[in-house]
Amino acid sequence: MIKRYSRPEMSSLWSEESKFASWLEVELAVCEGWAELGVVPRDAAERIRQNARFSVERIEEIEQTTQHDLMAFVANVSEHIGEDARWLHYGVTSYDVEDNALCLRMRRACDIIISDIERLIETLRARAREHKWTLQIGRTHGVHAEPITFGFKLCVWIDEMQRNLERFRRAREEISYGKVSGAVGTYANVDPRVEEYVCRKLGLKPSPVSTQIIQRDRHAEVLAACAICASSLEQFATEIRNLQRTEILEVQEAFRAGQRGSSAMPHKRNPRLSEQVTGIARVIRSNLYPALENIATWHERDLSNSSVERMVIPDALTLLDYALHTFDRVMAGLVVYPENMLANLDKMRGLIVSEQVMLALIRSGLLREEAYTIVQRNAAKAWEGRSFRECLLEDPEVTSRLTRDEIEECFDYRSHLRNLELVFERMGV
Fold first, then answer.
1. Within this chain, do residues 29 and 117 fall inside the same structural domain, yes or no?
2. Which of 307, 322, 348 marks a domain boundary?
3. 325 is catalytic
4. Does 207 map to a domain?
């Protein structure tokens, strides 16, 4: 799954090569931290940095014996260091290395996602400006409600994506913590100053307190941000799919020369990318539940989280990167049909101004229930195929209170958009 949907920057981040490179980054920082305290000779720390390297193939070979990936890694790096290897991994436990490295990679992944979201917001802003005044029917319960514009719809999406952006910024901060506190977090064999040095070197904050691991609520928060963002994308993608339905056809995903929609039906143009985003969102959400379960560990730690994280963290972040990139492509190339939007707007023969008429009757002196009953009675006639305007003009209870001009004014869609500028100003569009 990851291989198929990965984009290079994100996929390389979760490769074995990247994992071991981040482990080495931490191990070298630990050596330097000890050197700062005079425990490890400075020249030894320098030689370790100069000579340290690894081979994924060799680590996997050693792991066949050790059945422990971190120890296989340390053994492989030690092969290149020689006598100075006695200072490698000094005073620390596996997760003093692995947790810092994982947090580093998750933070870098968050940076990619944040960039993806910012790009999508800019694309949505551009399309919202383009269609600021493109009239469209608003729908509630799948039924025509009142006029909006397509640009207004996109403003709603921008607002939601800005919240997703803030969630990821907060999640990035929550995952930007490290620990070098030993086997149960008590600094029994490592000086807290080493932790301070390592975290400063890596751009992390020292966890105020930790066990053998950093608490997993931090990791769960990142995956929760992934799940919510994916759900937003699914909502938007579902709307595109609905608006592309033949009976509506107000928008359409870009369809390029040579593209095929069906092996059997040459006429088909399907919202395939939006459907992909919808499906991928479900997979991303499925990764959150195991991440929540990882918060509970036995005592100062157990191994139940490890196997889960190797799958759900890369999966969720990689798939979200793909989904954001894909939906950005959808919106950048989206074909909009204003003429179809206008045609759909008029399908109900004027019924969509029923609230305007009711409010006009209330202003004329009727009680709300009386006005509602009159308008609903005429709306029922229009549902059967007549013009709502004609029905109103034939109703003496309406014409005795509203002039023809006042009735006509209710059918002016511009009244629905009188505050549109305010919404666009709020959204910075």
1. no
2. 348
3. no
4. yes
- Give yes or no: 141 in active site: yes
Chunked mean pLDDT (size 10), the chain, 429 residues: 64 95 98 97 97 97 96 98 96 97 97 98 98 96 95 98 98 98 96 98 97 96 98 98 96 84 77 95 97 95 93 96 97 97 93 94 95 95 92 94 94 92 93
**Catalytic one among 115, 262, 286, 304?**
262
CATH number of domain containing 152: 1.20.200.10
Nearest of 236, 152, 185, 35 to residue 423 by alpha carbon: 152
- Output the pLDDT for position 390: 94
Number of domains in the chain: 3
Does some domain include residue 262? no
The model scores a pTM over 0.85: yes
| Cα–Cα dist 50/46, whole Å | 6
Exposure string (b/e) for 263-281, b if CB count within 10 Å is 16 or more?
Answer: eeeeeebbbebbebbbebb
pLDDT on residue 267: 80
Asked whether the beta carbons of 178 and 213 are under 8 A apart, the reply is no
- Separation CA 111–CA 150 (nearest Å): 30
Is residue 422 situated within a structural domain? no
Residue with tokens 């296989």: 72
Buried b (16+ CB within 10 A) or exposed e, 315-351: bbbbbbbbbbbbbbebbeebebbeebbeebbeebebb
